[in-house]
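To: structure subgroup
Subject: Chain for Friday's discussion

All,

I'm putting the inputs and outputs inline so they're searchable in the archive.
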Amino acid sequence: MKHRFSTVIFRIILFTFISGAAQAAVFNDHMGRKVRVPDHPQRIVTLTPGLTEVIFILGQAHRLKGVTRYSDFPPEAAKLPQVGSYIRPELEKILALRPDICFATKDGNPRIIVSNLEALGIPVYITQPTNLKTVMETIQEIGDILGAEERAEKVVADMRNRIAAVRRRADALDSRPGVFFQIGISPIVSVGTDTFIHELIILAGGRNLAAGPEPYPRFSREQVLGFSPDVLIITSMSRAKGFEKVKAEWSRWKNMPAARNGKLHVVDSDLFDRPTPRLVDALEILFSLIH
């Protein structure tokens, strides 16, 4: 294993040396780092499922040579070679794919992997979208890097138009129902102000009952009942049966408005968790569930 790993490193260094004279462009990533990217990179490795989705929606899947575990959307992504999970990417597997560039994220991907890749001459563009605005900016930036600017502009324009349509509908409403969004089952975990889901709740015309400085606050059942949520939405990384069990448990509390009025819902966590254009799908779904 050690010999094979050394051979892979030698080959990647040789490949980098030979191609080093190729023309490259410089891009500033979300960490403020200057990243030199070869013109027309043809071999891409993404280090999160969300970044995999972005490459696909930009029409650049033919360049994608490796992805992390749970890269399952679109379904074709699951057929690509995997390089470990996004919190534990495997350097040897990444190197074996001879990437021209890797796309990573600040939160989740280990810094040591990024450092090792860069030490071997492989550019790593680090992203850190924190809201819908920066998700759209990230899509445009990746489009610029891959020469898919026109496609990126169309994707972002569609997102903006759909977001604006939901905002108009929400602004026309007289009330803003209280929403408790449960992302963890045991313990009960919700979402604070500095999260994608908080932004979606506000845009969809709701009030986030867990708003506050803690990104992922924990609550007891009694605290949730004390909020008297008008709408209670459940999502988790667990299987669907787990969702339905939690929904059934909440439905027994008929004094809670969400249970009394049939406003207990289960949603697909991938729509709400990943910083991709599908966040707008989540927004539209959320509006329909709240109102």
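Points worth raising on Friday:
The longest strand covers residues 24-28.
The chain has two domains: 20-149, 171-290.

D.
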